[in-house]
Amino acid sequence: MAKGQVVLGPTGRPETIIPAPKPLAQHGPARIIAMCNQKGGVGKTTTTINLGAALARYGRRVLLVDFDPQGALSAGLGVQAHDVPTIYDLILGKEKDPQEVIQHTETKNLDVIPANIDLSAAEVHLVTEVAREQILAGVLRKVAADYDVILIDCQPSLGLLTVNALTASHGVLIPLACEFFALRGVALLIETVEKVRDRLNPQIEVDGIIATMYDSRTLHAREVLERVVDTFGDTVFDTVISRTVKLPDASVAAKSIFDYAPTNLASEAYLKLAREVVQRGVVA
Questions:
Q1: Residue 90's domain spans which residues?
Q2: pTM for this predicted structure
Q3: The pLDDT value given to residue 245
Q4: For the residues 113-120, what does the mean pLDDT come to?
């Protein structure tokens, strides 16, 4: 590279070096963020795990909330989710203290509230509850002071559970696979966020869109990413998560990418994303 030459990243913006975030003088209260996309298979759970683990490596106290009945986040970190209290027990009031449900992971500063298939029955039970959209918010308020960030891994739908997550959150991060069908649903999701802001949670905002599963070798992926940037501008993070077999392999091994393949490019990508998230003020 010639001196003074500007190198453009996948989003078409100049590549920049983002310094590691400074240690925090004190911890909490947490900023609550919903990881949300009603389209499945976009890397949402993978991004929740690895962004959370990256922030934990930078000294942030992180709580991950598995809010998907499939329990993929819990399984992806090797967290026991059967025959133990889960988020389902908390939102139904079977467990009153979230501290009794939180499980620690092998990663320092990274905790999880697990979920399992029982959560699939929650929407039926919540329908008749007073202020049913605000039940998760009440649960997370009890532990917010202990963490710097709480990431909620939402299920791939815009049902009552997802509305609960949006009502509890300060912001929304949207993982978006660089595929046409994934792109189509983003406008609907943003419209849902705006409805929640108008009716239930005036403070919520879209913190950003994270391009995932990017393959620079395909014209399709490059065109989708270009279209996303043209449409949403600076809402799209500069950091792009490329497709690699190491990410699903890490999930199968129940580890973060940092523990499974620390030298893989995906590891550096998620560290860079964590630095950008802090730089943008999404997380302290």
A1: 31-279
A2: 0.95
A3: 96
A4: 95
The tokens for 60 are 């942030």
14, part of any domain:
no
Q: Which of 12-16, 36-40, 166-170, 225-229 has the highest mean pLDDT?
A: 166-170
The predicted-structure confidence for 179-227, as pLDDT tens digits, reads as follows: 888 877 888 899 999 999 999 999 999 999 999 999 999 999 999 999 9
- The residue behind tokens 């919903």 is 34
Whether 18 maps to a domain, the answer reads: no
β 103-104/205-212 pair status: unpaired
Q: Dig out the tokens for 191 from the structure.
A: 């419209």
Instruction: Flag whether 73 is in a domain.
Output: yes
Number of independent structural domains in the chain = 1
* Tokens, residue 80: 């026991």
pLDDT tens track for 220-268: 999 999 999 999 999 999 999 999 999 999 999 999 999 999 999 999 9
28-67 core/surface letters (b: 16 or more CB in 10 A; e: else): eebbbbbbbbbbeebbbbbbbbbbbbbbbbbebbbbbbbb
CATH code for position 141:
3.40.50.300
Q: Tell me the two tokens of residue 239.
A: 């950091």
Cα 249–Cα 250–Cα 251 angle in degrees, nearest 5: 90
Q: Is residue 86 domain-resident?
A: yes
